[in-house]
What we know:
Blueprint: H1 3-14, E1 37-50, E2 54-68, E3 71-84, E4 88-104, E5 107-118, E6 123-136, E7 143-158, E8 166-182, E9 185-196, E10 199-216, E11 219-230, E12 240-252
Antiparallel strand pairs: 1-2, 1-12, 2-3, 3-4, 4-5, 5-6, 6-7, 7-8, 8-9, 9-10, 10-11, 11-12
Amino acid sequence: MSLARIIVISILLGFGATVRAQILNAESLRKVTDTSGFSGAATASFSLKRNVNQFVTLASNVHVQYKMNRHLALFKTDISFQKIEGDKFENSYISHLRYNYKLQSHIAWEVFTQGQFNKVNLIDFRGLVGTGPRYKLTTIENYKLFVGTLAMLEYEEVADGVTPLQRDLRGSAYFSFSLFPTPTVSVVSTTYYQPQLDQWNDYRISSQSSLLIDLFENFAFKTTYTFTYDAFPAVGIPNSQYDLTTGLAYTFD
């Protein structure tokens, strides 16, 4: 990676920090490439959100992946600062590490681990470890469809003074598509459904859709809409939340 690329990524990282959603979209900006080696993206964004309060958020995320033959390892981190009702700052953070091994041309096996905190949603810490298959449903390069079905262990500490320490087994099913209608426009959308396997009425849903428009070499305009629903959030936190962000994405190969 060149020094110029490292400098650009560092600038984007400094633009803002902590994740807005409770479920990280690991598909976002996943680089679809047949080339071995490192690739990735960094994004800086501004968002206006409303749940129990109104938020102004400056945020950034970085995605780096390494591909070699049947192996793919990717790391993603989302960080942000939120200004709440004009007089208070809160922050959140998600870090995600995932490994894929391609079993066949359309089937891969995934293993991942994730850690996060989110002061706005009263999550002191949530840790995940999971594994499962990922299926590619299409062979058309401009229209890619994927589904995944994973099982994951969850450890969660909530700061509402009521919810006990959580140690659960959850499922995580997702559907993702990437569309490339023109050489300069791409659309990526992913929806997750994550039920607690011994209590199916305890579930989370997250849907995120992003539009990227190439501006010039390695830079793109990106706008993203995210909707999340948690059947049993921390006390005082609404079940549903939404997030609309607009920013600049830098990609590299």
